[in-house]
C-alpha cells in the first residue's frame, strides 16, 4: 500500500476578467493550429460574460465540497488547486506544496475521461511542473493521477438526477417522449483513434456514461443519442460528429427511429452535457445560447440538464475514488470497461500531430512516466 500526504485538484483554468481573455486564449492554443477567426469568436463568448469563465468559481466550490467530505470521513490530506492555463497555475501550486513539505500527492483532473486533451496532457503538465521546479532547485511532490471516473457510481447518479430534473421541467405531455441527448467536447477523429491503450477510448467512455445515465433514468435498453459540441480546428480536419446543432436539425426534419422502426416526430429534447463535470464556458455558450437557439428555431422543446457540479452523490463518489487509492480498495467499474487511466502505457493517448503549427511553436513535451502506482 502506498501513502499520500496531499490531494491536488487539477483543472484547465479560465480568464477572470476582460483583459485576461486574449492572453488566456493564446496560451491555450499556442502551436495548436487553431484558426484566428475561431479565437476571435471564442473571445466573444467570454466577453459576453464580462471575460469571466465560470470554471474557476466552479472548481473552488468543488474544492470546498471535497474539503467538507474529507472532514466528514476523517481524511486528513490537505487540499490544493492548480490549473494548466490560468491562475492559480500548477507550477505555483506545486511550489507551495513543496514548501509545505508535501512528498506525494493524489491528483484529480477535472476531465472524467481519457484522450490527449483530457488525460495525457494533464500528465504532461505535472511532468513539466516537476521539471520547471527542478530548474529552480525545488523538488516537486510526486504526483499520482487518479483514474478516469466516467462510470463512477456517484457521477452516474448525479447526472441521472440532473436528467430527471430536466425532464420535470418539460410540459407533462412532452416528458415521456422527450429525446435524451448527451454531449461531450468534440475532438479530432485522430485523437480518438489513439485514445487509450488500444484506441477509441474517448468515444467508448462517453458512450458508457451516456448509456448508464439513460438507463438509470429510463431503465435497461433505454434509447439515447451521444453527440458532440464545441468543435474547433480547421474544417478540413475531421472531428467527432454529429454536432449537437446538426443533430437537432436532423431530428426536427426526420424524427427519430422508434424501436418498432417507425419515425416519430420529436417534440422535445433534454440535453445532458455529461462530457463536462461543471458548467464550463462551452456548456453556457454552446448549449445554453447556441443549441437552445437552434431548438427554438426548430420549434423543439429544449431543457439543458445540469452538470454534476457539487451534487453530493458526485462529491461523495470522488472521495470514494480517493479512498480507493488510500486503502487499496477494489475499484468499481459500472461500465465493464474496467479501470481506465491508472497504469497508462507510455504510448497511450499520444499528442496529436499538428500539421498547421510551426515546429518552433510546439512547447517542449516532457516525458511522461509509463506507470505511476
Ligand atoms: C477533450 C477536451 C476537454 C475535456 C473536457 C474537460 O476537461 O472538461 C476540454 C476542456 C476544456 N476546454 C476549454 C477551453 C478551450 N478549449 C480549446 C480548444 C480545444 N479543446 C479540446 C478538447 C477538450 N477541451 C481540443 C481538442 C481543442 C483544440 C485545441 C487543442 O488541440 O488543444 C480552446 C481554444 C479555442 C477553441 O478552439 O475553442 C479553449 C478556450 C475549457 C475551459 C472552459 C471554460 O473557460 O469554462 C475546458 C474545461
Ligand atoms: Fe477545450
UniProtKB/TrEMBL annotation:
<keyword id="KW-0456">Lyase</keyword>
<keyword id="KW-0627">Porphyrin biosynthesis</keyword>
<dbReference type="InterPro" id="IPR033659">
    <property type="entry name" value="Ferrochelatase_N"/>
</dbReference>
<dbReference type="InterPro" id="IPR033644">
    <property type="entry name" value="Ferrochelatase_C"/>
</dbReference>
<comment type="pathway">
    <text>Porphyrin-containing compound metabolism; protoheme biosynthesis.</text>
</comment>
<dbReference type="GO" id="GO:0016829">
    <property type="term" value="F:lyase activity"/>
</dbReference>
<keyword id="KW-0963">Cytoplasm</keyword>
<feature type="binding site">
    <location>
        <position position="282"/>
    </location>
    <ligand>
        <name>Fe(2+)</name>
    </ligand>
</feature>
<keyword id="KW-0479">Metal-binding</keyword>
<dbReference type="InterPro" id="IPR019772">
    <property type="entry name" value="Ferrochelatase_AS"/>
</dbReference>
<dbReference type="Pfam" id="PF00762">
    <property type="entry name" value="Ferrochelatase"/>
</dbReference>
<comment type="function">
    <text>Involved in coproporphyrin-dependent heme b biosynthesis. Catalyzes the insertion of ferrous iron into coproporphyrin III to form Fe-coproporphyrin III.</text>
</comment>
<dbReference type="InterPro" id="IPR001015">
    <property type="entry name" value="Ferrochelatase"/>
</dbReference>
<feature type="binding site">
    <location>
        <position position="122"/>
    </location>
    <ligand>
        <name>Fe-coproporphyrin III</name>
    </ligand>
</feature>
<keyword id="KW-0350">Heme biosynthesis</keyword>
<comment type="similarity">
    <text>Belongs to the ferrochelatase family.</text>
</comment>
<protein>
    <recommendedName>
        <fullName>Coproporphyrin III ferrochelatase</fullName>
        <ecNumber>4.99.1.9</ecNumber>
    </recommendedName>
</protein>
<keyword id="KW-0408">Iron</keyword>
<feature type="binding site">
    <location>
        <position position="53"/>
    </location>
    <ligand>
        <name>Fe-coproporphyrin III</name>
    </ligand>
</feature>
<feature type="binding site">
    <location>
        <position position="185"/>
    </location>
    <ligand>
        <name>Fe(2+)</name>
    </ligand>
</feature>
Amino acid at each position: 500500500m502506498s501513502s499520500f500526504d496531499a490531494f491536488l485538484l487539477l483543472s484547465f483554468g479560465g480568464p477572470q476578467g476582460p483583459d485576461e481573455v486574449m492572453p488566456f486564449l493564446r496560451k491555450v492554443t499556442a502551436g495548436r493550429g487553431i484558426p484566428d477567426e475561431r479565437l476571435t469568436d471564442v473571445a466573444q463568448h467570454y466577453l459576453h460574460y464580462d471575460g469571466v469563465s465560470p470554471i474557476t468559481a466552479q472548481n473552488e466550490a468543488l474544492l470546498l465540497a471535497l474539503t467538507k467530505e474529507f472532514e466528514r470521513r476523517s481524511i486528513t490530506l490537505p487540499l490544493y488547486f492548480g490549473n494548466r492555463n490560468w491562475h492559480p497555475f500548477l507550477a505555483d501550486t506545486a511550489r507551495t506544496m513543496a514548501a509545505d513539505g508535501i512528498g506525494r500527492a493524489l491528483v484529480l483532473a477535472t476531465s472524467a475521461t481519457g484522450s490527449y486533451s483530457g488525460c495525457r496532457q494533464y500528465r504532461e503538465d505535472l511532468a513539466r511542473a516537476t521539471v520547471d521546479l527542478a530548474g529552480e532547485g525545488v523538488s516537486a511532490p510526486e504526483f499520482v493521477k487518479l483514474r478516469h471516473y466516467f462510470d463512477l457510481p456517484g457521477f452516474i447518479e448525479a447526472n441521472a438526477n440532473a436528467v430527471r430534473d430536466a425532464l420535470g421541467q418539460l410540459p407533462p405531455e412532452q416528458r415521456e417522449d422527450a429525446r435524451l441527448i448527451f454531449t461531450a467536447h468534440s475532438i479530432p477523429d485522430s485523437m480518438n483513434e489513439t485514445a487509450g491503450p488500444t484506441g477509441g477510448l474517448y468515444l467508448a467512455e462517453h458512450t458508457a456514461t451516456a448509456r448508464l445515465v439513460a438507463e438509470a433514468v429510463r431503465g435497461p435498453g433505454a434509447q439515447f443519442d451521444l453527440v458532440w459540441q464545441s468543435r474547433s480546428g480547421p474544417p478540413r480536419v475531421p472531428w467527432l460528429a454529429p454536432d449537437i446543432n446538426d443533430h437537432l436539425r436532423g431530428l426536427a426534419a426526420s424524427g427519430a427511429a422508434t424501436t418498432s422502426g417507425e419515425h416519430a416526430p420529436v417534440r422535445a429534447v433534454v440535453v445532458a452535457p455529461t462530457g463536462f463535470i461543471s458548467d464550463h464556458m462551452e456548456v453556457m455558450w454552446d448549449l445554453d445560447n447556441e443549441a437552445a437557439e437552434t431548438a427554438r428555431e426548430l420549434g423543439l422543446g429544449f431543457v439543458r440538464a445540469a452538470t454534476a457540479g457539487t451534487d453530493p452523490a458526485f462529491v461523495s463518489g470522488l472521495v470514494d475514488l480517493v479512498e480507493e487509492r488510500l486503502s487499496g480498495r477494489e475499484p468499481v467499474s459500472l461500465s465493464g470497461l474496467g479501470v481506465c487511466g491508472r497504469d497508462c502505457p507510455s504510448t497511450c493517448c499520444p499528442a496529436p500531430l499538428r500539421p498547421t503549427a510551426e515546429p518552433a511553436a510546439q512547447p517542449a513535451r516532457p516525458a511522461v512516466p509509463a506507470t505511476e502506482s
